[in-house]
Amino acid sequence: MRLSLSLLFAGLLAGVSASNVVELTPDNFDSEIGTGKPGLVEFFAPWCGHCKNLAPIYEQLGDAFAHAKSKVIVAKVDADGIGKPLGQKYGVTGYPTLKWFDGEGNIEPYEGGRDLDALVSFITAKSGVKSNIKPPPPPETLILDVHNFDDIALDETKDVLVTFTAPWCGHCKSLKPIYEQVASDFKPESNCVVANIDADAQPNKEIAGRYGVSSYPTIKFFPRGAKEAEAYEGPRTEQAFVAFLNERCGTQRAVGGGLNDEAGRIAELDTLVQKFLGTAGDARDYVYKEALTLSESLGEMAKYYIRVMEKVVNDQESYIEKESKRLASILGKRTMSPAKLDEIKMKANILGAFVAKKLEEAQEKVESVIGKATAEL
Cβ contacts of residue 288 below 8 Å, gap of 6+? Predict the structure, then answer.
């Protein structure tokens, strides 16, 4: 019984400690690498901090391709211990160093990101083997690299906010979900771009150096038509990013998506709305005609001001309340396309100009009644 329990315990312990990352040494390296099966090899040192940070990710990488061990290998070499001769043979001078070996043993240095997604994508691209990890949804943030950075960040027709990050950076990981939401908020704005670049990836380091990036995350704003980038030094909250981009891009986006309460409003027509609702008869008709003339040069949403005024002129003042409720219901359900929801929000905002005047009139009446009652006392 004791022997059986010992064997059971040993089996469980082996199951817990089993790794899908193959440990290579000078004794088994040549039998595993260059024999027809490609693989990614990490040369590490046990004392190396970056290696320790990569270790759990690299174990996940091994697990991701455990179902395809006959087609691709994920391996590691203790290049400062038993595998030191291998490190010397393959020119390893820093840790961790990752190298891709094709089926014939030809070598390609791995210079991509050290996050799981980047490593999985690399192995899949090189070997044609798919991992067992469900791919994440595509990021809302526009991903930049050495190939597209200048075309996008330096585009004279666009304002571009760029985070320079590193996969291992804790502050970058904390910022990522916030920044993703900001990117989602501004997705409808083609000329106000929210982007990211892995500044620690070897191919991108020249770009990071060009802009003086020495810590992560570094955030820079590239204004349209400008020759120099500007450092973003504001708070790293969604609210702060949205306010900053609205100011610099001339947009009217809201925190959480959609447009803010100012979108669609036209100051000149707001002023005429006040006059329109405060008059009647010929005076109101004169204000309406003034607004009609002005609207011809103020864009598409100006026509909606005119439409609402016409409803009021035709004794349909209840239209304002009913239409406001209808539009609010549509916005609450959010079942339409983003472009259509933006249009609905602007119309709702314009109706707000008419509602505000009515509330003001109601407040004045209340104050008048209170004033009279006070005087009589």
Answer: 276, 306, 309, 310, 313
Inter-helix orientation angle 281-295/302-313, to 10°: 160
DSSP annotation of 237: S
Other beta carbons less than 10 A from residue 183's beta carbon: 19
Decide if 48 is catalytic. Answer: yes
CB neighbours of residue 48 within 10 Å: 16
Catalytic residue, chosen from 142, 169, 298, 331, is 169
Q: Does residue 249 carry a catalytic annotation?
A: no
Nearest residue to 241 via CA among 190, 199, 301, 179: 179
Choose, from 24, 40, 45, 51, the residue flagged as catalytic: 51
Does 376 score more than 80 pLDDT?
A: no
CB atoms within 10 A of CB 30: 11
**22, 48, 82, 146: which one is catalytic?**
48
192 is catalytic: no
Strand partners, 78: 44
Q: How far apart are CA 368 and CA 315, in angstroms?
A: 26
Among candidate residues 86, 116, 172, 344, the one labeled active-site is 172
pLDDT tens by residue, 5-23: 444 444 444 444 589 999 9
